[in-house]
Design a protein that fits this description.
Elements: E1 6-9, E2 25-28, E3 45-49, E4 54-56, H1 62-79, E5 84-91, E6 106-113, E7 118-121, H2 122-125, H3 134-137, E8 141-142, E9 148-152, E10 167-170, E11 180-187
Parallel strand pairs: 1-2
Antiparallel strand pairs: 2-9, 3-4, 3-5, 5-11, 6-9, 6-11, 7-8, 7-10
């Protein structure tokens, strides 16, 4: 049994903890693929999977399509839904500046390059969703490039239990000088 709302692991088996109601975020550590010999990431694209085939919107290297397939299988096992959509993009602005929970069952996020997604417990952020106060900023945690994170959303059946802390997330700062290459997968 998982102990808290956030669980870290070294293998994808960590995602089985998401079946426990108190777990809101599961993180699997792995190497950063772009810094470990993978060819450069492609231009932005999206992809959809109907449970059998991935349909990318444009060309992508095999290593990335293979990674998306593996990540999609993880998301499917967690949500019980075989269809999902993926979005791989270069982000040069803070896309989601406020801490929030997504209004979906679950979202998988991987940062391939640049600053990783930021997260905090709802009680640590309180009414400072923009993290303007220093004490709020001191409590923010950040995913590392390459780490796989699955966050539960607020879709019916996935809402946080009242006695357990909710986990919020947001995009970190990004710019032309420090862009992010990020992949998100959502069950559909």
């Amino acid at each position: 049994m998982a102990v808290g709302a956030v669980v870290h692991g070294l293998s994808p088996s960590v995602f089985t903890t998401l079946f426990e109601p108190q777990v809101r975020l599961a993180i699997c550590a792995r190497p950063d693929l772009l810094r470990n010999g993978a060819e450069a990431a492609p231009a932005d694209f999206s992809a959809a999977c109907d449970g059998r085939w991935i349909e990318p919107s444009g060309p992508a290297p095999d290593w990335l399509l293979d990674d998306i397939q593996r990540l999609g299988e993880i998301l499917s096992r967690v949500t019980g839904v075989e269809t999902w959509r993926a979005r791989f993009e270069t982000v040069q602005t803070r896309a989601c500046p406020r801490f929030h929970q997504d209004a979906i069952a679950a979202r998988l996020i991987v940062t391939y390059d640049g600053p990783g997604t930021e997260w905090a417990f709802e009680s640590e952020v309180a009414d400072d969703l923009d993290a303007r106060r220093a004490e709020t900023r001191a409590r923010i945690r950040r995913l590392h490039p390459g780490e796989i994170a699955v966050l539960k959303g607020t879709a019916p059946g996935w809402e946080p239990w009242p006695d357990f802390p909710a986990v919020l997330h947001r995009s970190p700062p990004a710019s032309r000088q420090t862009p992010r290459r990020v992949l998100t997968l959502d069950a559909v």
